[in-house]
């Protein structure tokens, strides 16, 4: 055990922040930490947009699942998959990358690069005593949010991250048991009993958490999230922006 691992294991999502904003120095430190992440073939196929305009923040908070705390924290980052710069460079170099851009892998590459960079930023923020929350809800309002952020073709928002000084923190959530996550040599399909035991632990967690009145399991919560957020428009949205047409 060391300080880095302790920081990782103490992670919780924070949804209540003070009104103290991050300094320009803190923002630069966090983005620099994000840029230190690994990148597939060093493509660096992502961009990060810091949203500081109060009116725009409120609009995004509403469109991204009606989550007002997004506009109340220290800073809001939108992580985007971005191969727009690669397309421009290819044109300047007289090279054709259209087949790659029209396949699914370029869209995956951008999302993976953005995710790796984002996790670096999160760990850096938490090491500074800040709280964070990933906001997948930006994909709920991906059409309007993309327009508001003036995103060109071959760029799309993967998620946002709210960062700030915590007002309060929840207790650390129990995770799925190690044996149900880590499979050695072959995939283990016999994990139902472990998940049932985990559901029991999560029911107790939810019951003990402030503001949680409904008794429910992790399984119910996870599947309900899939049902609530089908985001079936994502394929047509990406196709319209030049991605994954094949």
From TrEMBL:
Protein name: NADPH-dependent oxidoreductase
Keywords tagged on the record: Flavoprotein, FMN, NADP, Oxidoreductase
Pfam families named among the record's database cross-references: Nitroreductase (PF00881)
PANTHER family from the UniProt entry: NADPH-DEPENDENT OXIDOREDUCTASE, OXYGEN-INSENSITIVE NADPH NITROREDUCTASE
GO molecular function, one term: oxidoreductase activity
Homology family: Belongs to the flavin oxidoreductase frp family.
Keyword Oxidoreductase: yes
Residue ranges constituting the Nitroreductase domain according to the UniProt record: 9-165
